[in-house]
Amino acid sequence: MTTRVPASCLLAAAVALGTLALTGCASGEPAAEETGPASSASEEPTTAEEPTPSQSTSKSASAEPSESSEPTQSATADASPTASPADGVCTADMLSAVLETEMGGGAPGSVYRQIIFTNTASEECEITGYPGVSYVDAAGNQVGAPADREPAESAEVILAPGESAVAPVKQTNAQNYGADCELTDVAGLRVYPPNDTESLIVDQTGTACAAEDIVLMTVAPTKPLSP
């Protein structure tokens, strides 16, 4: 005996099956699509971890020392200290000088005198050796030849403030040389202390020979002033 299913029931079953199929497709495929981007995002590193150009530039700039951090001691280190005048040598600005005639000193046509140097500074100094001596006119110009050096040993002379040393000088009379002398009036002596390039003027009026081949004076090394 054949049982007939009503057409309405077959249509309802077909609709139900179609609905289930559509539901299965809708719930399965989108889920697979959503998991793909999520896994790729977790596996790949983000670009935020990489240093930006501005960050690397600032790090390198801070690591390198600036010009202001360089030491500036070289400017002061090169400066050397100022030494005392001539390293302890008596200079013209530390001395006074006068010319005195030795008691009983002289020879035919010549006179023995001595230049007396006195330390006028506040510190001791050394005056050892031959002074330079020459005649000068009233304008301070040299007249004739400078003094020759008398052979003698030179001893070290140290002057405390106020102490004196002497340099013996022999002066020959200019009148002894006649017309060849070229007599010229003089006003004093220019005296260079030993080992100094500055000079003192010592008063002495008289006459000297302008001819430079005539030497009127000889000078000896300095020595302590006798009491």
Automatic annotation (TrEMBL):
Annotated TM spans: none
Region (Disordered): 27-88
Record's signal peptide: 1-21
Domain of life: Bacteria
Biased composition (Low complexity): 37-87
Assigned keywords, A-Z: Signal
Pfam families: DUF4232
DUF4232 domain sequence ranges: 90-221
Protein name, as recorded: DUF4232 domain-containing protein
Originating organism: Arthrobacter vasquezii
